[in-house]
Amino acid sequence: FNDTATTEIYTEQIVGSVDVYKRQLNSCLLNVNSTQKFDEKCRILEIEKQNLKTDLKNLENLLQMIQQRETSQRSNLKEIEKENFKIKQEKDSIENLLQNQIKELQQNIQQKQADNIFLDSQINELKQKLEFTEEKIQKLNYENSQGFTEKLAENEELK
To answer: How far apart, in whole angstroms, are the C-alpha atoms of residue 32 and residue 47?
Structure first.
């Protein structure tokens, strides 16, 4: 009795069995032809009637139990569906949050790349200025050393 389809099959079988028992009871009542066997048949029919009533009561109890389980399963199914809906909403919310965070990180990466490109260009510009300045310093040192050498030579001549 674990699923609704099985419950419905058992329910149909029980209802069919009740109909069969009713037909058998009616058939037995109609087949009483002889007055000599009437009392005996009545007694047998009464026993069969009691047995059928017991069977019917058992089947009704079984049907009631099956219906209760079916109701319980439907209730559990509704709870599961509610829980699945909540989980899907949470999943969608988390996915949206992650997508927004990914977009934000991508934008940050793009900004950092742009900043790096700018800084690289600044560094290259400073390197060029440093090279130019070093060349000037070398030129000035050379000119100073030339001028110093010339001054030394003049001083030597003056002596």
So the answer is: 15
CB atoms within 10 A of CB 143: 10
Q: Cα(18)–Cα(30) distance, rounded to whole angstroms? A: 18
pLDDT, tens digit, for every residue of 63-117? 999 889 888 988 999 999 999 999 999 999 999 999 999 999 999 999 999 999 9
Q: How many CA atoms lie within 13 A of 57 on its CB side?
A: 6
35 — phi, psi (to 5°)?
Answer: -75, -25
Report the interhelical angle of 4-30 vs 38-158 (nearest 10°). 170
Specify the pTM: 0.41
Instruction: Compute the distance between CA of residue 31 and CA of residue 43 in angstroms, rounded to an integer.
Output: 14
Give the CA angle between residues 122, 124, 126 to the nearest 5°: 70
**For the purposes of burial, counting CB atoms within 10 Å of the CB of 45, is it exposed (0-12), middle (13-18) or buried (19 or more)?**
middle
| Six-digit token string for 40 | 């005996």
Residue 14: CB atoms within 10 A of its CB come to 17
